[in-house]
Amino acid sequence: MEKEIDTEMEDNSQMDLSSTSIDRLQEHNINMADINKLKAAGICTAKGLLMVTRKELLSIKGISDQKIDKMIEAAQKIESLGFSSASSIMEKRKHIRRITTGSHNLDSLLHGGIESMAITEAFGEFRTGKTQLSHTLCVTAQLPNSQGGGYGKVIYIDTENTFRPERIREISKRFELDENQTLDNILVARAYTVDHLNQLLMAAASKMYEDNYSLMIVDSIMAPFRVDYTGRGELSERQQVLGKTLSRLLKIAEQFNVAVFMTNQVMSDPGGNTAFACDPRKPVGGNIVAHASTTRLYFRKGKGEQRVCKIYDSPLLPESECTFCLGDGGVCDPND
Ligand SMILES: Nc1ncnc2c1ncn2[C@@H]1O[C@H](COP(=O)(O)OP(=O)(O)OP(=O)(O)O)[C@@H](O)[C@H]1O
Ligand SMILES: [Mg+2]
Predict the structure, then answer these.
(1) Which of 326, 328, 331, 336 to mutate to test the pocket of ligand 1 (most atoms within 8 A of CB)?
(2) 95/13 Cα distance (integer angstroms)
(3) How far apart are CA 225 and CA 26, in angstroms?
(4) Strand partners, 307
(5) What is the DSSP string of 201-270?
(6) Most trustworthy range by pLDDT among 42-51, 76-85, 259-268, 271-280
(7) 3-class DSSP state for residue 125?
(8) pTM for the full predicted model
(9) CB contact at 8 A, 287 and 297
């Protein structure tokens, strides 16, 4: 499949919307050694360069203030991040990939599946299926577009040590994909700390520049933040760093036309919160996560073995819910 993805990319998996190689800065007298420094920091496209702050660029070793001015000027000649007409945005949105969840119910709730160029967040109590959906998407992300797939490879960042290749094998059987190739197309990394997570995101951007990826998973986003920053005293610092990490994720989604799927934990909220009044639990991460996620899904247990997914927040989808199940072949419908 690796070869197939490279040579037979279908139209909507092309990265034509995103990437003008950072190498082109050479045309404007930026030397390759400096370009390589940017690449090492995960900045591989002209657009990517225009998306980062000056402060971030200054933190790259060997990149001075003067160099940054020259680089940004060069990038602006290649790529513009200004206004574009609504119709051209509509045209661009035609390239969005939608990745099936494995459940018809969930897919119709999401108007076709998890979408690229956006962050989808699933939060809910333990054992509600967040990790199972992550695994299912790892497989369906590789299916051809005609089968509801994203026709690309996957990067999986595991912060809770719950990634299981054995599950990928079982799920690939259901979708009739070659098990070994499916596993080969998933790059997995364990993130132990927030710094490590951020380094992995930079490395992920480089990988996506080199090859066709359709999905990036972070299961779960808040785990390292909750370990690295404890207590109220560190809360504001935590939120600041969290904001940067999420903005990195969103840039990856937009730049490479990949779907970002992240899971989130819930905490007990004995005080009650009107937005979540029907359930005494709410996602961790506060407003920073709420604002970064394009679509938020709330998972809870339903009748028997069923699970319920409710859309909490989406720019496009109405608030509604559906049921799904977890099986050997991953996420499925209750009557499967
Ligand atoms: N092979 C399988 N067949 C059927 N169901 C399975 C299989 N493997 C796991 N499950 C179901 O998945 C559930 C665990 O779901 P999952 O690990 O996705 O939870 P989670 O929402 O990620 O929880 P946490 O918050 O603890 O990470 C199990 O309780 C079980 O019902
Ligand atoms: Mg989990």
Answers:
(1) 326
(2) 7
(3) 38
(4) 301, 324
(5) HHHHHHHHHHS-EEEEEEE-SSHHHHHHS-SGGGHHHHHHHHHHHHHHHHHHHHHHT-EEEEEE-EEE-T
(6) 259-268
(7) coil
(8) 0.86
(9) no
Q: Which CATH number fits domain 92-332: 3.30.430.20, 3.20.20.70, 1.10.760.10, 3.40.50.300?
A: 3.40.50.300
Q: Whose CA is nearest to atom 11 of ligand 1?
A: 326
The CA angle 230-234-240, to the nearest 5 degrees, is: 115
Half-sphere exposure of residue 75: CA atoms within 13 angstroms, side-chain side: 23
| 2 pLDDT tier (thresholds 50, 70, 90) | very low
Q: Would 18-78 and 92-332 be classified into the same CATH topology? A: no
Nearest ligand to residue 306 Cα:
1
pLDDT in tens, 208-238: 988 999 999 999 999 999 999 988 889 999 9
Instruction: Write the CB contacts of 108 (distance below 8 Å, at least 6 apart in sequence).
Output: 322
Ligand 1 atom with minimal separation from the 135 CA: 18
Taking the alpha carbons of 299, 302, 307, 310 in that order, is the dihedral positive or negative?
A: negative
Break the chain into its structural domains and give their ranges: 18-78, 92-332
Residue position matching structure tokens 């070793």: 61
**How many angstroms does the Cα of residue 162 sit away from the middle of ligand 2?**
6
**Other CB atoms within 10 Å distance of the CB of residue 322:** 20
Residues with CB under 6 A from ligand 1: 124, 126-132, 162, 326-328
Architecture of domain 18-78: Orthogonal Bundle (1.10)
Q: How far is the CA of 127 from the centre of ligand 1 (A)?
A: 5
Q: Which two tokens stand for residue 210?
A: 């080199």
